[in-house]
Each structure stands twice: as C-alpha cells, then as structure tokens.
Amino acid sequence: MRVKQSLIGLLLIAVLIPGSWFAGQYAAAAWQRHKEKKAYDERLSVLNLNNDEFRVGGAFPDVALLSVADSSVTSVYREIRNGGLILYFSANCSGCEKELAAIQSAITEIEHPKDVILISPDSWSSLRAWRDTQQMSLPVFVDVNGQIRAMHEFVIIPALALLDPQMIVIQNSVGGGSAEDYRAILE
Questions:
Q1: The pTM is what?
Q2: Are residues 9 and 38 in the same domain?
Q3: Percent of the chain residues topping a pLDDT of 70
C-alpha cells in the first residue's frame, strides 16, 4: 500500500510540474523498480505454490537427462545420490551466470561438497558449445524432451532445488544466492 501511495505521489509531481525532467525520471525509475519487484514476487509464488516437484517437502521426479559431456542418457536420481543441488538454467540467461559463478565459488572452498547438477531446456549443441567456452566443471544435462519444463508449466530460470538423500526438496528458490549462501547449503 505504501509503495502505491509513493508511486502515485511521484506521478502527480511529474504531471503537476511539467518542466521537471528529474521528477519524471524519478517517477519512471520508481515505477520500474515496482514492476520488477512485483514480477519477482509473482515468480516466487509460481515456484512455491503451483509446482509440487519444487515445493519444499515434495519428491523431485526422476526424469531422464542427456549428458552434455558424453551424450549418455542418465537420470536425476543417478546423478544426485546422497542429496544435492539442482540448478535449472539457460546458457542465455544473465541471472543464471551470476548463480553459476556463486555456486562454483562456493564449491571451490568446500572439501567435500554435495552433488550439484545443471539442467537446461537448451539444445545439446548449444549447451556443449557453452560448456566448452565456460570451462564448466559441473555436470551439465539437457532436460530431455522438456520433461521438467512441461511438469512445471513455467519458464522461470534460474530455479534451484536442494534435495535430501531421499530426493525430497528441502529448500528452493528462484536465483539470488551468493557464494556464502551456497557454501552453507553445500557443506
């Protein structure tokens, strides 16, 4: 409510003082921040409320994965044996790059980190080229036939799920983690 009042006040200033370029710019920036926060909150609500497989307490499904490293077919359960982190990402996502950097930074500081796998809806060939240019040490997989994407009916990336050894989601989020955050959950 308070945000709406502030935005309305800023818009009124911009309208009442037509020559005030600064007021108009300030109002536009405030409106943009409001829209970004609302979009982020909606993304979180979609992830947390409508998707059983990503919901805390839900069992993550054992879907088929295609390895970018050697083209072998495997599954989530084979790749994460004792719990770990799944990052659903795209190679063309700037937010995903930040998450990957934070995860890799955390992993280098941990002697025996939990398993981490990267799953993407991108094509095998584009992921292979991306992995080679990024010198990615984490295992990268293709979401075969878009199974995860289809189950969730959303395109929210980066999406993360921390699984316990029984493949139950114990924590989830839509990006925004720091190296310290990942260090804490991967130890």
A1: 0.67
A2: yes
A3: 69
